[in-house]
Structure prediction request, 384 residues.
Amino acid sequence: MQDILFDFISKYVTLTDDEKNAILALDIFHSVKKGTTLLKEGQKSNDNYFVLKGCLRKYYMIDGEEKTTAFFTEMEALTPHCVMSKNPSEYYISCVEDTILLISTSDMEAEINSKFPKFELMCRILSEERLGKQQIDFDEFKTSSPEQRYLNLLESRPDLIQRVPQHQLASFLGIKPQSLSRLRARILEKNN
Amino acid sequence: MQDILFDFISKYVTLTDDEKNAILALDIFHSVKKGTTLLKEGQKSNDNYFVLKGCLRKYYMIDGEEKTTAFFTEMEALTPHCVMSKNPSEYYISCVEDTILLISTSDMEAEINSKFPKFELMCRILSEERLGKQQIDFDEFKTSSPEQRYLNLLESRPDLIQRVPQHQLASFLGIKPQSLSRLRARILEKNN
DNA sequence: CGGATTTCTTCACTTAAGTGAACGAGTTAT
DNA sequence: ATAACTCGTTCACTTAAGTGAAGAAATCCG
Prediction:
């Protein structure tokens, strides 16, 4: 399990044994059961998440309806907006599956960053990567119809369609579950 | 004009006269006429933009149609994706109005950053700010109907609706110009 | 095991966005 | 000055998404 983490990090920076031990000493590995809610609307938190195995979901509660806006799977990091803004959270984060996570507080990251500047570098690279990816995703979303978005998802993250309930996928695609059902039927029809 | 820049920077870090002069020595101030295209699809570029006055537009050309996905106005920065990826650009950037810009290359930024670490700090803060804002914008877009998106825009960036042509606004909102016209008529109807 | 709940699909109907065409107003260019 | 274009709006029609209800299948839980 720790190997998964260190393999990932090694893509960005090379760690000494000292550095690896410093990370392990933080005791950041956590197993979380499917359905667990990690963060609730209105709650304050300093926790950042990194998914080693499993899937997290971010959703808003609007007019009594869950609006899912993002999924986080293996090797994806999630820094809730409320951690940065220091305000109560606008949204929920929960586990779609049994999940193995790293949970780190801002304090812990600051400590590691000051001890090992290498880390700061990796965080900046990761943050830039994420910003770039985010922009492309947003552009793609804006320039596509729901049907195209579904087909794109089928291309880019086919696993999501298998592992996530349809009604959560639907709001992720910006539509209602019924529309997703219909849309899928329409696609099958075309490829009859 | 330079004051605008230094006032902005002073919100994040405090500059010495030496540092200010180093920036001015780079000769990064540019005036660009309305309609000018700064970046074209397929083109490679190392230029980053920062708008001092005016408005830039980012758009894709899809099936012969312009799809506008972002506007950049006063005090907003734009690092094209192609600068980071080193690939040809997927999109266009052009001037909606006569615009005063800072144009800096990655090399220039690296030079300033190495001379004045303060800058690196500011860049990281700005990048994190942007990532956060971007995520909130994306969530808002996903969870809203076109009509709600228009009303939100009216709240959050009312200037855009005045200074940008309707058909560019429409694709920014993810709809066709005709639908934007209709939607506005519908809103007026309601508030009769 | 069996009842309850969740999830997904289908249906009929409503509402809103897409499409193609047309028109007037404003702008640009020659 | 006038012809050509761009821009915004409107219209009629098509297509797709929203809504509410209902039911089948799968899953959860006592």
Remarks:
- The mean pLDDT of chain B is 92.
- Chain B touches chain A at residues 60, 62, 67, 69-70, 81, 84-85, 90-91, 124, 127-128, 130-132, 134-139, 141-143, 171-172, 174 (CB under 8 Å).
- Residues 145-147, 175-176, 178-179, 182-183, 186 of chain B lie near DNA strand C (CB under 10 Å from a C1').
